[in-house]
C-alpha cells in the first residue's frame, strides 16, 4: 500500500515542481531579462545563463506547492474511485493511510532545507554578479557609499552595573572595494579623551590588523569640549576595528546568504544599532528555517482535504491548491511584516503561518477519521 501511494504521488509532484518553477521564473526573471536584452543590449547567452541560475530559487518555492498539489490530487483520486473506502474496509485507519504521504513530505522538507542552504545562495550570487558583469557593472557589488558604522561598548557605572555606551562613529563617503574615501571618525572609547579623525582615504592593513590612513587630521578634544591638540599627518596607522570594512563588503542580498552567513552578518550589524535592519535580518533567518517545514503542513492539509473530495475532479484539486498557497503566502508576508515592525518576536512571525496550517490539517484529519 505504501509503495502504491508513493507511486501515485510522485508523477503529480514532479509535474507540480516543473509547473510552479517555470511559472515563477517566467514571472520574476524571464520578462525582466528579455527587457534587458532589448533595451540594454544584454547578450542572449548571458541572459540564458542568468535565467538558468534563477531556477534553484524557484525550485525551492515550487517544492511546497508541488507537495500540496500532489497530496490533494492523489488522495482526491483515491477517494473518488472509492479506493480509500476499500482500504478502510480492510481495517486501515485514516492516519495510517496518510503516513506514506507525510513521510514523503518530510523527505521533501529535508531536501528543500539542504537545497536552500547549499545551492540557492550561491546560484543567486552568481546570477547577480553575471548580470552586472554583462552590463559592464563589474565592481558595483563592492562599491558602497555613505557607510555609517556605530560601535557600542559596555561601560561600568558608579553603582557597579554595566550599560551600553557609544564608543565610535565611523563614516565613509565611499568604498571602492579596496579603499575607504572621505572618512570621519568620532572616537569616544577612552574615558576623558575624545578624538576626531578626518582623512582623505584609508585602507585595511591585514598584516598589522589596523587601518592605514592618508592625508588627514586628528583633533584631540578635552572633556570640557575644547581642542587639546591637533595633529596633521600624511600617513598614520590607527588600531580601529575591521567591522566597517566587513559592513561595506557585505553587500549581499538576503537571498544570496545561507543561515550561517546571515548570522555572521547579524553579528557585524548588531553593534551598529540599526534596529530596523537587525530585526529584518532576524526575521529572514527564522523564515529560512521555517519555510521548508511548510512541505509537511501542505502534505497534511492536502491529504486530509483530498480524502474528503469524493466527487471532485482534477480541476477542483488544482483550484484548491492555488487558493491554499495564496492564503499561506499572504499570512507569511503579513506576519513577517508584523515581526519586522517589532510587534512580534521573529520566531513567531516566521512560524505562525505554519502553525495555522498545522492546526487546519489536524482538524481536517479528525474530521476525516469520523
UniProtKB/TrEMBL annotation:
TM spans (from-to): 12-34, 58-76, 97-115, 289-306, 318-342, 348-366
Predominant location category: membrane
Membrane topology classification: Multi-pass membrane protein
Claim: Transmembrane is one of the keywords in the record: yes
Any one annotated GO CC term: ATP-binding cassette (ABC) transporter complex
InterPro entries, per the entry: LptG/LptF_permease
A biological process from GO: lipopolysaccharide transport
Annotated keywords: Cell membrane, Membrane, Transmembrane, Transmembrane helix
Subcellular location: Cell membrane
Pfam family membership, one: LptF_LptG
Claim: Transmembrane helix is one of the keywords in the record: yes
Name of the protein this chain belongs to: YjgP/YjgQ family permease
Organism: Thermoleptolyngbya sichuanensis A183
Amino acid at each position: 500500500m505504501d509503495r502504491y501511494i508513493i507511486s501515485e504521488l510522485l508523477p503529480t509532484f514532479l509535474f507540480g515542481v516543473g509547473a510552479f518553477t517555470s511559472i515563477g521564473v517566467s514571472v520574476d526573471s524571464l520578462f525582466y531579462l528579455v527587457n534587458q536584452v532589448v533595451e540594454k543590449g544584454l547578450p542572449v547567452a548571458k541572459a540564458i545563463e542568468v535565467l538558468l541560475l534563477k531556477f534553484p530559487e524557484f525550485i525551492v518555492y515550487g517544492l511546497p506547492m508541488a507537495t500540496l498539489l500532489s497530496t490533494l490530487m492523489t488522495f482526491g483520486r483515491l477517494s473518488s474511485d472509492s479506493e480509500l473506502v476499500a482500504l478502510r474496509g480492510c481495517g486501515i485507519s485514516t492516519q495510517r493511510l496518510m503516513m506514506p504521504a507525510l513521510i514523503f513530505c518530510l523527505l521533501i522538507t529535508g531536501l528543500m532545507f539542504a537545497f536552500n542552504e547549499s545551492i540557492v545562495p550561491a546560484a543567486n550570487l552568481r546570477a547577480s554578479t553575471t548580470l552586472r558583469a554583462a552590463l559592464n557593472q563589474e565592481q558595483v557589488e563592492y562599491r558602497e557609499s555613505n557607510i555609517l558604522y556605530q560601535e557600542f561598548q559596555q561601560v561600568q557605572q558608579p553603582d557597579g552595573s554595566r550599560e551600553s555606551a557609544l564608543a565610535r562613529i565611523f563614516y565613509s563617503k565611499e568604498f571602492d572595494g579596496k579603499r575607504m574615501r572621505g572618512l570621519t571618525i568620532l572616537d569616544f572609547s577612552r574615558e576623558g579623551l575624545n578624538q576626531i579623525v578626518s582623512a582623505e582615504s584609508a585602507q585595511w592593513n591585514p598584516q598589522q590588523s589596523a587601518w592605514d590612513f592618508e592625508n588627514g587630521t586628528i583633533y584631540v578634544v578635552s572633556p570640557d569640549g575644547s581642542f587639546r591638540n591637533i595633529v596633521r599627518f600624511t600617513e598614520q596607522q590607527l588600531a580601529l576595528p575591521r567591522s566597517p570594512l566587513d559592513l561595506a563588503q557585505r553587500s549581499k542580498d538576503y537571498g544570496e546568504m545561507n543561515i550561517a552567513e546571515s548570522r555572521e552578518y547579524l553579528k557585524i550589524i548588531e553593534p551598529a544599532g540599526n534596529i530596523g535592519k537587525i530585526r529584518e535580518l532576524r526575521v529572514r533567518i527564522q523564515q529560512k528555517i521555517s519555510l521548508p517545514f511548510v512541505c509537511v503542513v501542505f502534505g497534511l492539509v492536502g491529504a486530509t482535504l483530498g480524502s474528503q473530495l469524493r466527487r471532485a475532479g482534477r480541476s477542483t484539486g488544482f483550484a484548491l491548491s492555488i487558493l491554499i498557497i495564496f492564503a499561506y503566502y499572504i499570512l507569511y508576508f503579513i506576519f513577517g511584516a508584523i515581526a519586522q515592525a517589532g510587534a512580534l518576536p521573529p520566531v513567531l512571525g516566521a512560524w505562525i503561518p505554519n502553525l495555522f496550517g498545522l492546526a487546519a490539517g489536524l482538524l481536517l484529519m479528525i474530521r476525516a477519521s469520523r
